[in-house]
Request: fold
Amino acid sequence: MTLYLYGGPKTRASMPKWYAAEKGISYNYVNVDLAARQNLAPSYLEVNPFGKLPALKDDSNGLMLFESGAILQYLSENYTNEVKDPATRASISQWILFANSTLAIALFVPSNKEREFPRLMATLNDLYSKKKFLVGDCWTAADCAVNAYLGYLPIFYPNEDLSAYPEIQSLNQRTRSNQNYRQIMGL
Amino acid sequence: MTLYLYGGPKTRASMPKWYAAEKGISYNYVNVDLAARQNLAPSYLEVNPFGKLPALKDDSNGLMLFESGAILQYLSENYTNEVKDPATRASISQWILFANSTLAIALFVPSNKEREFPRLMATLNDLYSKKKFLVGDCWTAADCAVNAYLGYLPIFYPNEDLSAYPEIQSLNQRTRSNQNYRQIMGL
Reply:
């Protein structure tokens, strides 16, 4: 049984890499050179027809999977014991979609940022003030996805004032001092 | 066992509504009036702390769920027989994330539309020329999510020339002539 994770520097491969490191999931890493257009080579288009990174191949069942969030969810469900019932699985999927869709669009769609961003931050800050983890009582793929997105804030918006959201600030501090995260992000 | 779907006109509730109609899943529909700010009432914030629509409540296990994609996935996994193994589940999750994240961002982030949109459309057109359905041999939550997003194209971009993507055009025709879709979208 072997997992292959296809990624490259500055791609969203960092999210499943961080998750796998935290959960002790081993895999073979395949570096796909975007500059050399290796992502458009026929052999890679068989793994992901869109030629985007990351992707995952699981030799145990022949699965080839793209979308960083789907990879995270697959690892969570099949290579950890954090999913115990359909409700937990659904809640983890909810937060992964929240991160990769709602939060991503709020951060990167200019017309949305002003309106959506403060509302999302205020609610997230409130939730994290009551509970250390988003689903259950341990760090799951839900936290990985949301923490990784929030971790982009100081990178993409270094001048953004987050002082109204102290829980997010301290969460970002924990993320950025995490050894696996630092290594994967090259910090 | 009762499902409650919270939605409103012109929200992404249309996606799970369409899916439930196609699959014969029954639920109680709760209309949340955004103009009257019912979505910010404490009773609704208990269902979705972000006050966004849609959301789902499942009385059988107490689950409260937001994110249209997570709702779709939950219905697919628990109220239909389309998910038969972890690989199918992962592939459906991949396409839901593709629709709600990659495709949404390509459509609605102006800087991405020019670069990403033609690439995604060309690949989708190619995939649909080879296979009628995205996962397995029947219409699943994967098709629902992708078809619903592609169905936005003539609405948000009525002048977009899609003639280079005949499979997408005929797919959109099928979507827009689907009786359940027409009723839910008010066409």
Remarks:
- The first helix of chain A runs from residue 14 to 23.
- Strands of chain A lie at 3-7, 28-31, 55-58, 63-66.
- Chain A has two domains: 3-79, 86-185.
- DSSP finds eight helices and four strands in chain A.
